Amino acid sequence: MRKRSFFIFMVSFLISLFHTKRTPKHRPDPADPMFFVGTWQFKDHRERVHRLEIDPDLKLLIDGKDMSAKVSLLTRYELSYVDKFGYKLEIRGNEARPIKFYDESENYTYDLQSANEIEQSN
Questions:
Q1: Known Pfam families for this protein (predicted)?
Q2: Domain spans, the chain
């Protein structure tokens, strides 16, 4: 009788072990590509002002030149590109808007300002 109850216990244990419900993995909030769309300005380390534009199709332009960069990552607060030379270009944001631009080729992070805000203040 003991062997039978032990056997039943082991079988039920193994079945429950392999059939436990797995908790779903946490999914990050869906990214909204329109969050990054707009025109931004930044000053480089030589104090020159540059204009960064992101179109609704996420095409990246810097100073009016198409960077021929491809989107490599899009999350809620980060948009990452790889340019034609293989360097990473990242735009990072907070809850309100994009605030930083990282250029791997120069290994430098720039502060972004909305071009509309700057033009209105002048």
A1: DUF4828
A2: 33-121
| 39 within 8 A of 114, measured Cβ to Cβ | yes
pLDDT of 70 higher than 80: yes
Give me the CATH code for the 33-121 domain, please. Answer: 2.40.128
Q: How far is Cα 117 from Cα 40, in angstroms, rounded to an integer?
A: 9
Answer yes or no: are the C-beta atoms of 101 and 89 closer than 8 Å: yes
Single-letter amino acid, residue 56: P
Contact 4, 75 (CB under 8 A): no
Residues 6+ apart with CB under 8 A from 111: 42, 43, 99, 100, 101
* Residues 99, 108: Cα–Cα separation, whole Å: 14
What are the tokens at 15?
A: 């079945």
